[in-house]
Amino acid sequence: MLLIGNGRMITRDAKTPFIENGAVVTEGPKIIETGDYTVLKKKYPDAELIDAKGGVIMPAFINTHEHIYSTMARGLAIKGYSPDGFLEILDGMWWNIDRHLTLEQTGLSAESTYIDCIKNGVTTVFDHHASYGSIRDSLFKIEEAAKKTGIRSCLCYEISDRDGEAKMRDAILENEAFCRHALADDTDMIAGMMGLHASFTLSDDTLALCAEHKPDGVGYHIHVAEGIEDLYDSLKKYGKRIIDRLMDHDILGEKSLTAHCIYINEHEMDVLKETGTMVVHNPESNMGNACGCPPTMRIVQKGILTGLGTDGYTHDMLESYKVANILHKHHLCDPGAAWAEIPQMLFEGNAQIAGRYFNTPLGVLKEGAAADVIITDYIPITPMNADNLNGHILFGMSGRSVVTTVANGQVLMKDRCLTQIDEEETLAHVREAAKKLTNSINA
Question: Whole-model pTM?
Answer without folding.
Answer: 0.97
